Structures are given as structure tokens and as C-alpha cells.
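Q: Here's a chain of 195 amino acids. Please give me its 3D structure as C-alpha cells.
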Amino acid sequence: MKKYMLSIAAMLLLSIAAKAQFTLGLKGGMNISKINTDNVSESTVTGYQFGAFARIGNGLYLQPEMYVGSKGGQFNFDSNGTNTGGSAKVRFTSLDVPLLLGKSFGAKSLNFRIMAGPIYSYILNTDQSFSDNLSAAYRDLGNYDRSTLGYQAGAGIDLGNISLDARYEGGLTQINQKYGQRQNLWHISLGFKIL
């Protein structure tokens, strides 16, 4: 009896999995990012992203992605009458892996989607420039954690094989503990479904 029930459960799971929609695609886009830093004036930099995504499910779906991206920020330290003021610009090249849970509304060929979920980022390269007086006063400012966790939330539309997404990404962990720095960005991407 136990084997019979397990066989039925396995067949049921396989039939559900076979009916689940699976999509694979390529994506690319741009972002506007900044590094929030305690007691500092920040400004944005423009970056890019390109990679792949999969979408599993109809209506309610799971969307894992993997892409290479560029993000960072600019900031100015106010001298407050001292000689420690200065500016810095930081740009990261990172491998980003979001895992999004979403809901789509509409037909398969034209639908609106909302999604949210965690993102893991691993910094592959850091390009940074600090003014001389800033480097001298804040020696450990450029010591960034290579691995960070964050979240993404956004919306998108699908028109046939074309997918357009707009998302906000916020940092859950700090990229520099001492200065309370967190990465935040808005990005827009265009995807093309190949499967």
C-alpha cells in the first residue's frame, strides 16, 4: 500500500512538473546606482547588466537569474572646517544572482508581472578613485566586502518573446561595515525568451 501511494504521489508530481511552464532567456540593461554612506553626500553612477534568466511556472512563478553587472556610487565628505574633506568614486563589477518569486496577470503573449526576492552579489572587480586628502584621512574606506545580500522588487511586462523589467534593489548587508555603506540601485532590463 505504501509503495502504491508513493507511486501515485510521484506520478502526480511529475505531471504537475510537466505542465509547469519553463522559459529561458537572455537579458541586458542599465542601472542607476549609489552607495548610501553614513554622514556623507552621495550621488549616482550609471551601470550595466547582462546575463540569463529562467522562469518556472504559470501565474505564480519562480525566476532565478544570473548576470554580470556594473554598479557603484560617488560621494563627497564635508570637511566641516578640517582638511579631511574630499570625494570618491567607486565602481564594482559583480556577479549577481537574484531568486525572484512573481505573479503574472494576463495572457501568455501579453502579461503584466510583479516580482520580489533576495539577491546575492559577489564583487569580481573594484575600480575606485579617492582624492588624496580623503585617502589619507579614511584609509579603510575602500575595504569592501566581496559578498553581499540584498533584495529586489519590481514589475515587468511580456510581449511575446520580449520581456521588459523595472526593479529597485536595496542592500540588506553593508558593503563596508565601518562607514555603514549599502548599495542601492534602480535598473531596467530588456530580455528575450529563447525557450
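Q: Can you summarize the key feature?
A: The helical segments are 2-19, 132-137.
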